Amino acid sequence: MLVHLSISQFTLVEHLELELKAGMTTITGETGAGKSILLGALGLALGNRTGDNIVRKGAEKADISATFIISEKVIQWLKNHDYPIEDDTCILRRVITQEGRSRGYINGRNASATELKALANQLIDIHGQHAHQSLMQKDAPRKLLDNYAGTRPLSQKIKQAFQAWQEKLKQKNNLQEDSAEQQAQRQLLTYQVQELDNLDLLEGEVTELENELKRLSNADAIMFSGQQALTLCADGNNDDSSSALSSGQDSALQQVQQAIQQLDLIDDDNDVLKESREFLNQAQIQLQEASDSLHNYINKVEINPQRLNQIDQRLGAIYDLARKHQVRADSLYDTWQELSDKLNALNFSDEDMDALIQEVADLEQIYLKLAHQLSKKRHKAASKLDKEVNTHFEALALGNARLQTQVASDEKFANNSGIDHIDLLVQTNPGMPMGQLCKVASGGELSRISLAIQVITAQTSNIPSLIFDEVDVGIGGGTAERVGRLLNQLGQHSQVLCVTHQPQVAAQAQNHLQVSKIAGDEQTFTNIRPLDNKQRTEEIARMLGGVEITQHTLDHAQEMLAMGNG
To answer: Rounded to the nearest 5 degrees, what angle is found at the Cα of 473, between the Cα atoms of 471 and 474?
Structure first.
């Protein structure tokens, strides 16, 4: 519900703070006073396009804010779109500069005009000859009928069933559309994978083979250098007399042991000497461990020409395939896995396809069963809605007009909303064919037909606030009074704002706003104010007409107000 409207520097309004109440509120004023300013400012806050002369002369920018009390559904919308939540209220704001640039805000955060409109469609609905009509929207008849019929839970199930069906159908169609290019790709992958399967490469095998090849290829040099290092570390008696390293030279381990023996001959508790002896002991241990490790390493080195040839051939085969696939040899295993996965994705057996076709058929039947249930409910609700709406047409000066909610059901219409094409048809004159509401009805007729529909569907409507802009155009007297009563009745379920020239309509409202124009020396101002009972009587009397407002006119106005609030 709209509870507050703030307008600053907008056309003829310098600054205005307006509190709005529940029920029916009427907005009146003399012709040209600026009643449209209120709706124009509100429309901008709701995301409407800006026009010329928006900003008041001499001001830098216009600023309009509309505050709404919101439902859980709207709160969820705000959460889904990452807008801040402020209790149960929501503020839509629009700022327009003199240059025509505008910025929108939802609860203080930047918002596009599209987002403002999307949110506004859940908050307020405007009906009038010159305003965008919700009934004119493509999907409006279906939404209206489903809200009236109370079929939203079933509609949600249908949406989910349709999505599940379409996803499987798309998967089946993609697999059945196996092109020549896909077949060629399968043949190529089959050959490549078979070739790699025959190679039977192990993960990490290339690195292990290359390391082993290096050891076997250099076995003589490795054993020679390793033995020399071992001799220097620990083995002073080497049978190889040709080695310069073993000609009477003690090993490092022997020399360290001799150094320790010499230190042991020194009879001194000096700390530095103790530290030196400890370092030598550690060196002795480490040299012994190094010697053991070298023994183990040398013992594993072998001279094996046969194994060397095997490794050379194996690596040659691996390198050849790696070059073929243009990858490093150590990446060939990953390439094999990747190509195998692609081939598996392309291979879909006849049994798998048969199972998928059956699954698509089953999902289609689930959807159609739900859709036919919904169609049945829609047809029943359409007849009831037409009957109830048509009872109001005569009172609304629509003569012999007749509304028909057309529900055409056919499985070829299948979508996420069911199998029905729903349209609102109207016959405005006897003998004339039925036609689409948006094409046949005039502006005034459309407003009043919409009014009748809103009265009937008010209890199921999701829109908490409704605005009717001069729905009483072209009517008067008793008809205008009946329009006012319908608006009053609608105001018992929703907030209703009604711009009117008819005193019979204005008298039916619980709240009354008067728009007036004040001419200054250099500028003109528009003002909007709430009226008390005395002021309402005077305004209704003014609307009743006459050069002068007499006591008789005032009495008549009081009588109308008494009847309207009775």
So the answer is: 135
Q: Is residue 152 classed as helix, strand or coil in its secondary structure?
A: helix
- pLDDT, greater one: 359 or 401: 359
The better pLDDT of the pair 345, 290 is held by 290
> Cα(first)–Cα(last) distance of the chain, in Å?
25
Rounded Cα distance between 453 and 461, Å, is: 10
**Cα(218)–Cα(522) distance, integer angstroms:** 105
Q: Give the tens place of pLDDT for each residue, 71-89.
A: 888 999 999 999 999 888 9
Q: φ and ψ at 515, to 5 degrees?
A: -105, 130
Q: For residue 496, give the nearest of 478, 482, 513, 475 by alpha carbon.
A: 513
Domain spanning 2-123+463-564, CATH architecture? 3-Layer(aba) Sandwich (3.40)
- Assign 28 to helix, strand or coil: strand
Mean pLDDT of 552-557: 90
Using an 8 Å Cβ cutoff, are 24 and 508 in contact? yes
Write the burial class of residue 203 (CB in 10 Å: 0-12 exposed, 13-18 middle, 19+ buried): exposed
Domains in the chain: boundaries: 2-123+463-564, 183-346
Which has the minimum average pLDDT: 277-291, 361-375, 510-524? 510-524
Tell how strand 435-436 and strand 420-427 pair up.
Answer: antiparallel
Q: Which of 526, 395, 373, 508 is nearest to 452 (CA)?
A: 395
**C-alpha dist (Å) from residue 352 to 186, 359, 365:** 17, 11, 20
Residue spans of alpha helices (H) in 458-532: 477-490, 503-506
In 3D space, the residue among 555, 548, 543 whose CA is nearest the CA of residue 506 turns out to be 543
How are the residues of the chain apportioned to helix, strand and coil, as percentages rounded to the nearest 5? 55, 20, 30
Supply the pTM of this predicted model.
0.58
Tens-digit pLDDT profile for residues 15-60: 889 999 999 999 998 876 677 788 889 989 999 888 878 898 889 9
Cα(7)–Cα(444) distance, integer angstroms: 29
Radius of gyration of the chain (CA): 46
- Average the pLDDT over each of 103-112, 247-256, 402-411, 431-440 and give the range with the smallest value: 247-256
**Which strand (E) or helix (H) includes residue 183?**
helix 180-199
Query: Under a CB-based contact definition with an 8 Å cutoff, are residues 9 and 501 in contact?
Result: no
Binned at pLDDT 50, 70 and 90, residue 478 comes out as confident
In angstroms, what CA-CA distances link 26 with 65, 196, 289, 445, 508?
Answer: 21, 83, 102, 20, 8
**Residue 238 pLDDT > 50:** no
